[in-house]
Specification:
Elements lengths: L3 E5 L12 H11 L4 E5 L1 H4 L2 H4 L9 E4 L2 E4 L1 H11 L8 H31 L6 H23 L11 H11 L11 H11 L2 H15 L6
Parallel strand pairs: 1-2
Antiparallel strand pairs: 1-3, 3-4
The structure holds glutathione.
């Protein structure tokens, strides 16, 4: 059965690949799983029909027969567990790869979102200028810790895994801020992810939604 995921009908980031369906598309591409993408409008996402799939009225969702999932992390883990290619066979290495998925979603992405939200939603607040450096410092501290752990390695723990897929997807959200450039090792790590053919296919597919042009190949 071919799974169906949901993605934005209109691309709020103008096709820069920052919405969370991209990490799911990337996982599908890494494991070679054909999939359908159903595009939803902002208003349709808040309707009861979509909320039956996603309680918070968001994308992405995943449907496969009777199974409905939401949360990009849960969806990527589901894909990685059902197909070879994104999780190591060794049980301990597998647990560590899943740990990196959680680290990306719990310990890195919230700090990145906090910065994006501050810039987007809090700019007019009287306390904006005082708060912004605190938000930036917290994020810089975490990125420093991550860069130390990555060191000279290509990927976070041995071979490329769903942990890297999720961490790189999360770090990509930093690009508009320019802050990633302050961490050359993390920038190079993200670039290695973006250079993967599976990522390129996923990126092209989401861009096609915005440009209306079918991806080549
Ligand atoms: N933690 C969720 C976050 C989902 C999320 O925030 N989705 C965004 C798109 S990337 C969305 O649907 N935003 C529209 C809205 O919240 O109304 C996940 O990882 O799937």
């Amino acid at each position: 059965m071919i799974p169906t995921i949901t993605a934005f009908e209109q691309s709020p980031d103008r096709g820069r690949g920052l919405s969370r369906d991209v990490r799911v598309r990337w996982a599908f591409e890494e494991v070679g799983q054909p999939h359908e993408v159903r595009l939803v409008s902002f208003s349709a996402m808040k309707e009861p029909g979509h909320r039956r799939l996603h309680p918070f009225g968001q994308i992405p969702t995943y449907e496969e027969g009777d199974l409905v999932l939401f949360e990009s992390g849960a969806i990527v883990l589901h894909i990685a567990e059902r197909h070879p290619g994104l999780l190591p066979d060794d049980a301990n290495a597998r647990a560590r790869a899943i740990t990196w998925m959680f680290a990306a979603l719990n310990s890195v992405e919230p700090l990145i979102l906090d910065l994006a939200n501050a810039r987007l939603l809090e700019r007019d607040q009287s306390w904006y200028a005082a708060r912004l450096p605190l938000v930036q410092d917290r994020l810089r501290h975490r990125l420093g810790e991550l860069t130390t752990r990555l060191g000279e390695a290509e990927w976070l723990d041995g071979a490329f895994s769903a942990g890297d897929l999720m961490m790189i997807s999360v770090l990509l959200r930093l690009k508009p801020s320019g802050m990633l450039d302050e961490y050359p090792k993390l920038s190079a790590y993200v670039a290695r992810g973006e250079a993967r053919p599976a990522y390129k296919r996923a990126f092209a597919a989401q861009l096609a939604v915005f440009t209306g042009k079918q991806p080549a190949g």
